[in-house]
Amino acid sequence: MPVVCAANPKGGAGKSTTILTLATTLSEQGASVTIIDADPNKPISDWRSGNSRLPIKVISDVTETTIRDKINAAASEAQFVFVDLEGTASRLASRAIIRSDLTLIPLAGTALDAKQAARAVGLIKENEEDTGKKFNFSLVFNRTNPPPFTRRIEREIADQLRNNRVPVLQAHLYRREAYNAMFMERVSLYELNPSSVNGLSGAIENAIHITAEVLELLRQSMAKEAA
Question: At the top level of its lineage, which domain of life is listed (predicted)?
Fold first, then answer.
């Protein structure tokens, strides 16, 4: 079954938020989902210790020697496997990228984040050279402002990346209180109280939109492999 990882050498780039948003949305829609929490800070494991009703399995005991077997075992059981990687360009990250069907590279709309995202793209290219295989990846913006409040620098960075033929999701994970509330309350977007979280309906709509685009990327990738 499809494996999606989130990679970026920069800590705090939004990897965990991206992974948790996608995983909980798919689980809410009825899919079986496993998350491998390879971030030393264990944000997903901490979230799982809460009271979410979603039956998402979280695996946290992974090392660079076990990551591949853990992914393979999870993929044999769940419809979707997500891997939240550490914020370094490590051997563990490389092994997860090589095994994944799609690598997402989260970044905020800043020049520093764009530079660090370029390092993640470089890591993927190194893996391609080492293995002789092409890997499916895409950058995904997060913590950006929704239209019509999108900042000029965010638009410029996105345009520059696309002009350089770097894959970028059309959908962004916008700056929403609800994404932070997921981790604070240890539940999914779909379990938060609308009366206590501003803009929750907008965050849910945003999550569904970006999940649909990721699913389409996976469908296209699998269609190419089957051809």
Answer: Bacteria
